[in-house]
Each structure stands twice: as structure tokens, then as C-alpha cells.
Design the sequence.
């Protein structure tokens, strides 16, 4: 049997329809009510920092980066990170997150936020946002709001509402 190669490439506008279908399979219709989706709604992803993973022509994973504001500070919102259920636990999510964070760091971005599982994301440098420091729109479990400093000290003094960057 021939081994299939995983190809990770920058997001293109043509990928968005496939990503939406992947997100639907992975997260279901309730995903639209989540706080992170509300922040991304109507905002174009940062294409140079968003990536897709394919095996052949089949889209098996995607990671989107979107610009947000944290109080007065600029930040990126990572996610959704989505991997086709049959392809999970194969390092695809890790490759996508690493490419996005490395690209963001190289482009001079300082701070990345996400809503996710700390045990998974701490390997990339994410930490839990201290209680009361940031206010996300809508209901969110504060233990799942995480940040990653791409430059030392980037989170110092950052506080307030997290809003869409317009």
C-alpha cells in the first residue's frame, strides 16, 4: 500500500466552502452560537497565517487566524482548528497550529488568543487568561480562554473586552 503524503498549504478563498463542510462534520450546527464564532463572523481570515491540510485532494484539516482587539491591543484569534474525525491523533492539528504561530511570529504579531483545551494547547505556549482580565462576548468558560505571547511581555497590561478588529 502506498503511503499518502500530508500537504500543508496557505488558505485560499476556494478552500472556504470545504472548510465550512469540515467544521459542520466536526462541530455540528451549535458551533455558530460559540463566542469565538461570533468574533469571526463576517471578518475575513488572515490568509497568510491560515492553513489547510490535504491528503491528495481531500481536505483533512484547517486552521484559521483572525484579527481581534483585546482592550486597546491588537491580537490574533486562532481557530477553529479542525481535523477530519478519521484523521485525528496523527499530528495534523499540531502541524497546522505550528505553521500559524511561526508565521504570525515572523510577521511581527505579538499575541494570539483562542478558546480551547489548555492541556492540548499548552505545548504551543498557551496559558490560561487570568480571571477577569479579558471579557469575551457571549458565554464562554473562562478556563478555556487562552493566550500565547509571540514576543515576551506581549500580554502585560492587556485587559478589557475582546472585540472584532474592523
Sequence:
Amino acid at each position: 500500500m502506498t503511503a499518502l503524503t500530508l500537504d500543508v498549504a496557505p488558505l485560499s478563498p476556494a478552500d472556504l466552502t470545504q472548510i465550512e463542510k469540515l467544521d459542520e462534520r466536526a462541530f455540528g450546527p451549535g458551533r455558530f452560537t460559540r463566542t469565538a464564532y461570533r468574533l469571526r463572523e463576517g471578518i475575513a481570515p488572515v490568509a497568510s497565517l491560515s492553513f489547510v491540510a490535504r491528503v491528495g485532494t481531500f481536505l483533512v484539516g484547517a486552521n484559521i487566524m483572525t484579527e481581534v482587539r483585546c482592550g486597546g491591543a491588537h491580537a490574533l484569534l486562532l481557530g477553529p482548528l479542525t481535523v477530519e474525525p478519521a484523521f485525528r491523533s496523527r499530528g495534523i492539528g499540531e502541524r497546522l497550529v505550528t505553521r500559524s504561530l511561526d508565521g504570525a511570529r515572523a510577521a511581527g504579531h505579538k499575541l494570539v488568543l483562542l478558546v480551547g483545551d489548555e492541556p492540548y494547547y499548552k505545548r504551543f505556549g498557551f496559558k490560561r487568561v487570568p480571571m477577569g482580565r479579558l471579557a469575551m462576548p457571549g458565554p464562554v468558560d473562562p478556563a478555556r480562554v487562552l493566550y500565547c505571547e509571540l514576543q515576551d511581555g506581549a500580554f502585560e497590561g492587556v485587559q478589557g473586552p475582546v472585540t472584532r478588529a474592523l
Observations:
- The first helix runs from residue 16 to 27.
